[in-house]
Amino acid sequence: MEQAVVNLIKMAGHAYDGKNYRDCENYCNQVIAQEFDFAYAWKLKAMAVNMLSTPQNPRLSEVYTCLLNYVNMSAANKREEAEKKAVQILADSYTGEMEMHLAQLTAGRPTDLAKTRLVDIWNDMMGKMNSFSKICTFSSSRQLIEQSWKSFKKKERKSIYEACNKSLVNTVEYNYYREYASSHGSGWMKGRDYRTGYRPDKSTFDLFIEETAILQNTLWAFAIEPVDEEDARVLVDICTLALTIQRRRDSACSFKRMVETTTNGYGAVLKREEYWEFDYYMKPNAD
User: Fold this and answer.
1) How far is the CA of 45 from the CAs of 66, 90, 92, in angstroms?
2) Strand partners of residue 192
3) Cα(234)–Cα(157) distance, rounded to whole angstroms?
4) Strand 269-278 relative to strand 255-263: parallel, antiparallel, unpaired?
5) How many C-beta atoms surround the C-beta of residue 182 within 10 A?
6) How far is CA 74 from the centre of its chain?
7) Distance (Å, rounded) from C-alpha 269 to C-alpha 271?
8) In Å, how far are 48, 96, 109, 272 from 198, measured between CA atoms?
9) Phi/psi at 33 (nearest 5 deg)?
10) Three-state DSSP class for 269?
11) Is the dihedral of CA 101, 102, 107, 110 positive or negative?
């Protein structure tokens, strides 16, 4: 191995340790250009690329490709160690990606994009683990894949439930319940804030339906077979929250277009106002 390559891989390692992940990737690329079968360079590049992945520029596919090369380029006597290390890096990568998008979900009002990315990452993790299992030559590596997938499902399902529960407070649904609920907490009053005279328009109701559907669909997407009893309890919580959101929406989001006119003593219209209000009295058992 040429001294220039040795120097580059050392610089890549120092860059990674110093959290200069872009420099690390660049150094690894230079090493790979000269020594394509340098297994360690592929592993280090996978780790650096994982740290550079963002919601706007996800790079999990690159991480996976680097790890495949890392395993395939490893010497026979280091193959088992390489397989296990690759599985760990892959699992950590997907866990980090999920947490990143869960943070996006709870940062503000829920979006369909955040929901879609979470579901995509979950499904992609399952597919990548299945594919990786096929190239593993050691049973210990395949067992680690199975353990990693179960651990991922259990941890992330709980995180999904907590994120959706937290995200609920940012929705129109939650805030209208809080602001316009009756003093008995039995349901929504007519959709008007009597302190300010504010009345929501139709877009408010549309957003109400859209946001609750996003959260509900996110929860249902992860309502799959549990790993163990503890995970089963989280699954029950997920289903309960999804049904609660649906019940609250169905029982309170019925609304209708209203017209209010003000006339003078001779019957002439002085003011005509159109607005939307909750059709609460048609659904008296709203939560």
Assistant:
1) 7, 13, 15
2) none
3) 7
4) antiparallel
5) 11
6) 34
7) 6
8) 52, 42, 21, 16
9) -65, -30
10) strand
11) positive
Predicted confidence (pLDDT) at residue 8 exceeds the cutoff of 90: yes
Phi, psi torsion values for 89, nearest 5 degrees: -65, -40
Domains of the chain, residue spans: 171-287
Q: How far apart are CA 179 and CA 166, in angstroms?
A: 18
Distance CA(167)–CA(211), nearest Å, equals: 10
d(CA 242, CA 221): 10
Residue 58 DSSP class: -
Nearest Cα to 125, choosing from 97, 106, 101, 100? 97
Structure tokens given for 51: 């740290």
Q: What does the block give as tokens for 261?
A: 């006119």
In the prediction, which pLDDT does 183 show?
38
Residue with tokens 């996978």: 46
- Token pair for 132: 């990786």
Q: Are 199 and 137 in contact (CB under 8 A)?
A: no
Q: Which amino acid is at 17?
A: D
- Whether residue 35 contacts residue 1, with contact meaning beta carbons closer than 8 Å, is answered with yes
pTM metric for this prediction: 0.75
Among residues 271, 287, 52, 88, the alpha carbon closest in space to that of 178 is found at 287
Residue 64 has, within 13 A of its CA and on its CB side, a CA count of: 18
Can you tell me the distance from the alpha carbon of 264 to that of 171, in angstroms, rounded to the nearest whole number? Answer: 41
Residue type, 22: R
Query: Above 50 in pLDDT, residue 115?
Result: yes
For tokens 């760990």, what's the residue? 88
**Which of 190-194, 244-248, 249-253 is predicted least confidently?**
190-194
Interhelix angle 60-73/39-52, rounded to 10 degrees, is 170
Sequence-distant (6+) residues with CB within 8 A of 255 are 191, 202, 205, 276, 277, 278, 279
Residue 271 is encoded by which pair of tokens? 């003011």
8 Å CB contact between 170 and 108: yes
